Amino acid sequence: MNDLKEFWEWGLKLEDPWKVADVSYRDAGGEQEVHIRLDVPFGMKVRCPECGRMCKVHDRIKERTWRDVDMRGMKTYIRADIPRADCPEHGVKQTDVPWARPGSGFTLLMESMIVSMVRQMPVRTAGDMLHEYPNRIWTVVRAYTDKLTEGLDLSKVRRVGVDEKCFSGRDSFLTVFADLDTHRIIFVTEGKDSGTVGRFKRFLAEHGGKARKISDFSCDFGRAYISGIRKHFPLSKITADRFHLVKMANEALNDTKCGELKLAVNRMKAMYLLLRNPKNLSCGDLVLRDRICRDNEVLGIAYRLKESLCSLYSMGDVYSAEQHLKGWIQWARMAKMYHFVKLADTVEKHAAHILQRFSSRLTNAVLEGTNSMISVIKSRARGFRRTESLISMCYLVSAKEKTDMYGRSV
Ligand SMILES: [Zn+2]
């Protein structure tokens, strides 16, 4: 028996004053379980959680249980009465146990395993495999991601990308902020209004960042983010993201009513040819595209308007780009196509932000890249639509450094 105790003391890496008091095997509905009871022997001192001083034991609180990683397929539990330290400075305080996070029902080793599993599979599947309720798995995921965000140092962040992401249904949006220099997601919050920028400012300040040091933001053309940035980061320059401009140009083309079309291919294929970047089309497709534009005058003009706006980014300098943009706005208004006239108004309103791209060279490509990540997050969080769960999963999936609950790299 003493060998068994020593084995577990070694296995659990126990240090003074903790000792293994007892190891027992129990039958729980036909399943074998291992229960290891730990104790602080009489007369030994325990650490005050506030100051770290070794103090005499005042009393012990009722036995608590933590689930550890399974031992050869048997559920393994650690049990202990937790001593309360009698600190001369801080009074009677419950000592922290070295094998678990305060308040958790799992050991740190078990929590590390849960985090590793959730990186690879949906929370529900991890719960099924471990025979644990998914809500208990979520508490571990949230504790881990809280730890990840607590340790963030944002003092070096200078250029920030902000974008909305739709997670479930039309009303469930999160706003994601990324450091455009390190390509790291640094803050995720609920909603897509201007208040999200205010929350980012507070988060930045809590993690060593300063609003006046943020030189640039890259965002979409929506009023919400731009007004939020102007209010909370008045010194920052705003770059309207090129992906959003290209997207709006494509939408204007797609929505333009062109009447009865003469098409050499079905409509879906025709729109595919017109909406795709011509650089990615084969010679045959280019010939087909030209034929569609020649045979359908209105569609042809709409297509040229779209391509002309997208070609803005091939301009070599801001002066040429400005002239190109002015010419385009005039042309779009003269063409009198409703969706392009509307787009011309938006482009004119945000011309300064669009042209800022030629100085800042910023894009939200890193945030657009997260779109594939979103499907992973949705799959990991399937069945759990609570916003906090989705936010936690965003941090977990996007974390570049993989660490365990001990903070060690894995
Ligand atoms: Zn103390």
List the topology elements.
Layout: H1 2-11, E1 19-28, E2 31-39, E3 46-47, E4 54-55, E5 57-71, E6 74-87, E7 91-94, H2 108-120, H3 123-130, H4 134-150, E8 159-166, E9 173-179, E10 184-190, H5 195-206, E11 216-219, H6 223-232, E12 237-240, H7 242-255, H8 267-275, H9 283-295, H10 297-310, H11 318-335, H12 338-349, H13 351-360, H14 365-368, H15 370-380, H16 387-398
Helix pairs in contact: 2-4, 3-4, 4-16, 5-6, 7-10, 7-12, 9-10, 10-11, 11-12, 11-13, 15-16
The structure holds zinc ion.
Keywords, separated by commas or semicolons:
410 residues; alpha/beta; Nucleotidyltransferase, domain 5; five-stranded mixed sheet; elongated; binds zinc ion
